[in-house]
Design brief:
- The structure holds two protein chains of two kinds.
- By secondary structure, chain A is mainly α.
- Helix content of chain A is 75%, strand content 8%.
- Chain A is rod-shaped, with a radius of gyration of 35 Å.
- By secondary structure, chain B is of the alpha+beta class.
- Chain B has one domain.
- Chain B is built from eight helices and seven strands.
- Chain B starts with 16 loop residues before the first helix and ends with a helix.
- Classes of the chains: A mainly alpha, B alpha+beta.
- At the A-B interface, helix 1, strand 1, strand 2 and helix 3 of A face helix 1, strand 2, helix 7 and strand 7 of B.
């Protein structure tokens, strides 16, 4: 049962309540639209996250295999010596985007991770090249997954918040306003009837006197 | 519910703090939905055209609330691969997806034929621009958003928000 809002039974309050009702109904429409968009984005992000995670696991599995083969071929010490020279800083561009009022991060690896191989191409085999290539791909997959997972969390939080607002509007605010408006209308009608009855009574008394 | 025929007035004067907070919250909701839009003057300028954004180190536009909207280079390059240089100079970014009263469809606000070409190529189907908007359905919208995550932005119809 919706609760009656405590206001003075005056015409001004009735007008104010009607305005509030109209605002609430408009907001409800927007919030519902927003919720549907957020849900669509959330589902899409969930699907993308699953796909990205699967891709990352595949890439990592291939990478470890390639690295094991390369380590077996060159030996750990020789491989480590070659790989020391290959260390480079990874530059990730981070920015913010906006999805229906939610600020979501977006990450992107800047340019090629490693345009020039740091290790000696003469002394190393193609196994190491393969491992290096796979590591680059894994890095990209990690960055992509990081972005998707953060988006996933932010969208989920916003959906929760928006759902609470929608429910509050649908089940508490709007019914409360409607009931109060109805109550005030009935009150005013009753006052009119009372006034009419009083006038009739006065008329009768005047006619008698 | 109290009996409306009762004479006594069980009301308190003024709006309760909870009511005020609720109204502020609702007004905040109206504000928040369109904060991610690019500033109007920026949208008219050439800095937000694809061609110029491609040359920027960190491609972005400034939004209504003063924040920045970042574009992914890979997406810009994908967009650039669809159209020629003249069209790149005419394509404003981000593309605006307007959500109207009808929840089943959305409209992409377009100022020229370039958007039409881009959307048509992205969705792999012919689309036409009617009344400065390309009408698409929800499944197509999801497909489009998947391809252009940072280069499209949702707009809530001013008819609803106003």
């Amino acid at each position: 049962m919706p609760e009656l809002i405590k206001v003075r039974p005056t015409k001004i309050e009735l007008v104010k309540l009607k305005r509030r009702l109209s605002l609430s109904q408009r907001v409800q429409k927007i919030v519902k639209d927003r919720l549907s968009i957020l849900t669509m984005e959330f589902l899409q992000t969930a699907r993308d996250t699953v796909e990205a995670k699967r891709k990352l696991l595949d890439e990592l599995s291939k990478l470890y295999k390639a690295l094991s083969v390369a380590a077996g071929y060159h030996g750990y010490i020789a491989l480590e010596k070659e790989l020391i020279a290959t260390e480079v800083d990874v530059k990730v561009t981070a920015g913010l985007g906006n999805v229906a009022g939610v600020r979501i991060p977006s990450f992107e690896l800047m340019g090629n991770v490693k345009p020039i191989k740091g290790y000696n191409l003469v002394d190393t085999s193609s196994w190491l090249d393969r491992a290096a290539q796979l590591s680059e791909e894994s890095l990209r997959a990690i960055v992509e997954l990081a972005e998707l997972q953060r988006n996933f969390e932010l969208l989920a939080m916003e959906i929760n918040r928006t759902k609470r607002i929608t429910n509050a509007l649908e089940y508490i605010v709007i019914p409360g306003l409607q009931v109060t408006i109805k109550y005030l209308n009935m009150k005013f009608e009753e006052r009119d009837r009372e006034e009419k009855a009083r006038l009739k009574r006065v008329k009768v008394l005047v006619a008698r006197g | 519910m109290p009996n409306p025929l009762q004479d006594e007035v069980p009301m308190q004067s003024g709006q309760s703090p909870y009511g005020k907070m609720l109204q502020d919250c609702l007004r905040g909701e109206l504000r928040v939905v369109n904060t991610g839009l690019p500033q109007s003057q920026k949208r008219q300028s050439k800095e937000n055209k694809l061609f110029y954004l491609l040359n920027e180190k960190y491609p972005h536009v400034v939004c209504n609330d003063g924040s920045t909207h970042f574009f992914k280079k890979s997406e810009l390059e994908y967009l650039a691969s669809m159209i020629d240089t003249d069209e790149q100079k005419a394509l404003p970014l981000p593309m605006l997806i307007e959500l109207g009263a009808n929840q089943a469809e959305a409209a992409i606000i377009c100022e020229g034929k370039v958007e039409e070409k881009v959307i048509s190529k992205a969705l792999n189907m012919p689309v036409t621009c009617e009344e400065r908007g390309i009408r698409i359905y929800k499944p197509q919208l999801a497909l489009l958003r998947r391809k252009f995550k940072t280069t499209t932005v949702y707009v809530f119809s001013p008819k609803i928000v106003a």
